[in-house]
Design brief:
The structure is a single chain. By secondary structure, this protein is α+β, with helices and mostly antiparallel strands. It has one domain: 2-Layer Sandwich (Alpha-Beta Plaits), CATH 3.30.70.1060. Helices cover about 30% and strands about 40% of the residues. It has helices spanning about 10-35, 85-95, and strands at about 1-10, 40-45, 50-55, 60-65, 75-80, 105-110. The strands form two sheets. A four-stranded antiparallel β-sheet has the order 2-5-1-6, with helices on one face. A two-stranded antiparallel sheet has the order 3-4. The longest helix is centred in the first third of the chain and has 26 residues, at about 10-35. About 15% of the residues are buried.
């Protein structure tokens, strides 16, 4: 089953951690999952200030600069993993470097 790992953290803290060398641990995490054959996608996002939020109201497209929700914690990336079960997906999420200073939400992917 595929699971989405939605990675989020305090943006300022995430930037600090990346400057401190967190990229190396991300590379190690990604390489491990690639070798295991479970990683389907992994992308990091630019800061939330670069977001454009789109809403459709009464047939009109409304655009707002910035993220959907204002706050310190923002989505910074996502991964899709193919796992035997939720326990394996949780173990993979717990090993993600951002889990140490943010959080990783694990959700099953709906396949139609």
């Amino acid at each position: 089953m595929q699971y989405l790992l939605l990675i989020s953290a305090d943006e300022d803290l995430a930037v600090t951690r990346m400057r401190e060398g967190a990229f190396a641990s991300f590379d190690t995490w990604i390489t491990d999952l690639e070798q295991r054959g479970v990683l389907r996608a992994h992308v990091g996002l630019h800061e939330s200030a670069t977001a454009t939020t789109v809403r459709l109201r009464d047939g009109e497209v409304l655009l707002t600069d910035g993220p959907f929700a204002e706050g310190r914690e923002q989505v910074g990336g996502l991964a899709v993993v193919d796992c035997a079960d939720l326990d394996e997906a949780v173990a993979i999420a717990a090993a993600h470097p951002a889990a140490a200073f943010g959080q990783v939400e694990v959700r099953p992917v709906r396949v139609s």
